[in-house]
Amino acid sequence: MHKCSRKKTQLYLLSVFFAFFVLSFILIHDDASTKPGDDGGRRLILKPSFPTFTTTNASTHKTEKWVVGELPSGASDWSKATKACAHTQSYNGRPSSRVKYHWGKESRSNECNAFSGRWVYDNYSYPLYDEAGCPYMSDQLACRKHGRPDRDYQKWRWQPRGCDLKRWNATEMLEKLRGKRLMFVGDSLNRGQWISMVCLVQSVIPSGKKLMTPNSALTKFIAKEYNASIEFYWAPLIVESNSDDPINHRLSDRIIRPDSLLRHASEWAKADILVFNSYLWWRSGPKIKLLWSYSGGVCEEADGKEAMKLALETWADWIESSVNPLKHRVFFVTMSPTHLWSQEWNPGSDGNCFQEKAPIEMEGHWGNGSDLNAMQMVDEIMARLGPIVTVLNITQLSEYRKDGHPSIYRKFWETLSQQQLANPVSYADCIHWCLPGVPDVWNELLFNSL
Ligand SMILES: *[C@@H]1O[C@H](CO)[C@@H](O)[C@H](O)[C@H]1NC(C)=O
Ligand SMILES: *[C@@H]1O[C@H](CO)[C@@H](O)[C@H](O)[C@H]1NC(C)=O
Ligand SMILES: *[C@@H]1O[C@H](CO)[C@@H](O)[C@H](O)[C@H]1NC(C)=O
Ligand SMILES: *[C@@H]1O[C@H](CO)[C@@H](O)[C@H](O)[C@H]1NC(C)=O
Ligand SMILES: *[C@@H]1O[C@H](CO)[C@@H](O)[C@H](O)[C@H]1NC(C)=O
Prior knowledge:
binds 2-acetamido-2-deoxy-beta-D-glucopyranose, 28% helix, 11 helices
């Protein structure tokens, strides 16, 4: 009896460790992705340190501008930061947020909550576009192309309880974007949502009237006749960090500047509609190193959740001081759930999302990958910001979609070993989402809120 439970504990610890490993591994490797639609198979090269650019004084960042395709100069400071962070002390609890006024939670009891509902199989209206028909598709998300045999994951409609979503209409979306810049800011999950948005609208634009710029810190899809752009800005930790290079981002030793984001924000400020996300990157490492702007060379460290809070508070300060609600719309996409443990929906099993073909039916299912405390922290920050930010609360609805991940049907940037190939569960990607698929619905919710 005793022995048995110890074995169970060991097994549990092993599975937690394993899931942690898979999460880190996939996050390290995925973002090396090439530009959307690029089949060239550019591999991620994990460099020992960050590429160095011309060094500039940190104080010049605020006014610095850079052009698309180039990284901001000054990105080099990370070699110095790495040296400073060779020794750390724990975070001493300095308050960082300056957001003062509190809105309190919005009470919208008589409004329909579009994020609460169920998935309805609808092979009449879905998918909203054809995977192979989207020239900007990413090889990381093109599941059919990479051998996924089933197709039902493309055919689910989100049905809120008590109201209907407006039907997707690409022309109407483009009209909403006329003369505007829509910018997605965040990590690879947010990039998936950006590619989904591009694929959702691009088919109604004739060739020659649309354009995609090369992959860089800021990548733009341009709809010429609408004078509109749909852009993606890589900033997985929101504030400045040593993971800001869209291709080479080290993960083993993450350093952030918890109170600095002006270099990013100078680009964000040019957008009319901003869609942020940030979550998984805070979870996939042990400790995060903090280098404050007035640190005097002292480097602190904090756990992921604490660091995430500091970063989001800095972000909230920026939103509050820089966003004009009459001119800008700001959205925040809540955490994207993972499906790393099949025992969460199928007790006794020991797989993950691999070979899952249908959504979870249990209402209110909430997986262990979605941290309720982190959600509460996000709740509090959003409540402080009030109506300036619209929350796209996609966590619960995406929790149901254990069938929506690429699992083994995507391009993997590293070579898989015989051992891995023999055990597909070991390398299945249960973090990102196939397209067409779940992120299309996130964009329908965005479309409904614009
Ligand atoms: C949709 O699904 C139903 C039931 O599975 C099937 O009978 C029908 O042929 C399908 N329609 C299309 C257009 O695929
Ligand atoms: C889509 O929107 C456009 C522009 O608003 C409108 O002209 C068109 O009728 C809509 N299409 C559908 C199917 O509703
Ligand atoms: C195109 O949109 C930008 C803003 O994104 C605006 O500054 C510019 O004036 C617009 N150009 C035309 C021709 O409408
Ligand atoms: C998820 O968390 C619950 C509660 O902490 C725990 O009982 C369960 O074993 C966990 N499941 C997995 C797969 O880790
Ligand atoms: C998102 O929805 C969940 C329930 O699914 C709720 O607990 C949480 O507070 C919501 N978060 C935000 C930021 O609105």
